[in-house]
Specification:
Blueprint (H helix, E strand, L loop, with lengths): L6 E4 L5 H12 L9 H10 L9 E5 L2 E15 L4 E12 L8 H15 L4 E5 L11 E2 L5 E2 L9 E5 L10 E4 L10 H8 L12 H9 L7
Parallel strand pairs: 4-5, 7-9
Antiparallel strand pairs: 1-2, 2-3, 3-4, 3-9, 5-8, 6-8
Bound molecules: coenzyme A (COA).
Coenzyme A binds next to α1, β4 and α3.
Length: 219
């Protein structure tokens, strides 16, 4: 897509390091001191759930300013019936270019591509502030939860096709592409491929803690 100001195009192998550097800049110290999203991207591209046809970057004047990736995850209902949904993420925009509409443009472009590919819903864990304007709703509204009937406040669902969910309860099983990020030594090792950066505390980490540990307990 070319709107005369920027282009949205598929990521290529030549972009990998640039895109991971972008992610590192966008996520550094945001949720925890440092970040692991650059390693997550590296692992995700090699994971069976990864969808290369939905791996897009936004480029302006030859510089990649934003990136989005998707993978497949599974919903299982109480009778064991399974269906595939999209898991969105990472989504990131270079810090100096945030809040200019690039994240919105990438999401809207890739949602349309996902519909063409036959997907009917996107799920991701994130700060609702970033997603409600894109039509995401709380997982509770669609009766989608984790095992144990846990409806995380940060579990957000976007119907790509109206009526994608019929009210029955679905349990969400996210693919394990980010499992490597729990390995602190692996994160440290991968980070050595990038210029040194200082880990620090910032208030957004407390915001992340609150969002990621909260549940919607009443309809
Ligand atoms: C979150 C992120 C991807 C959003 O992309 P962006 O290009 O900065 O955001 P956009 O300008 O496209 O705005 C998207 C929405 O954010 C909200 N938003 C925009 N400006 C805002 C502001 N100044 N304050 C609060 N919310 C704002 C709006 O809901 C907006 O949608 P709308 O314009 O339809 O109302 C980007 O800021 C980012 O990379 N942040 C760091 C990494 C991250 O948090 N990634 C998401 C993981 S959950």
């Amino acid at each position: 897509m070319n709107n005369n100001d920027y282009i949205i195009r598929l990521e290529t192998e030549k972009d990998y390091h640039t895109v991971e550097t972008l992610a590192r800049e966008a996520f550094w110290n945001l949720s925890v001191p440092g970040c692991s999203e650059h390693l997550f991207m590296h692992a995700l591209r090699q994971h069976k759930a990864f969808i290369p046809e939905l791996d897009y970057v936004l480029e302006k004047d030859g510089e990649i300013l934003a990136s989005v990736m998707y993978s497949e995850s599974e919903l299982v209902d109480e009778s064991g019936c399974r269906r595939t949904v999209l898991t969105m993420g990472p989504l990131c925009v270079l810090p100096d270019h945030q809040r200019c509409g690039y994240g919105k443009a990438l999401l809207e472009y890739t949602f349309a591509k996902a519909v063409e590919m036959g997907y009917d819903a996107v799920i991701n864990f994130g700060n609702p502030d970033n997603y409600v304007a894109r039509g995401y709703k709380s997982c509770r509204k669609y009766n989608i939860c984790f095992e144990g009937d846990f409806f995380p406040a940060a579990l957000l669902v976007k119907e790509l096709k109206e009526g994608a969910f019929d009210g029955r309860k679905w349990f969400y099983y996210q693919n394990d592409a980010d499992a490597i990020c729990d390995d602190e030594a692996a994160v440290e090792e991968y980070d050595k491929l990038f210029p040194p950066k200082v880990k620090a505390w910032q208030p957004s980490q407390e915001e992340f803690y609150i969002h990621s540990h909260s549940a919607i307990v009443r309809e």
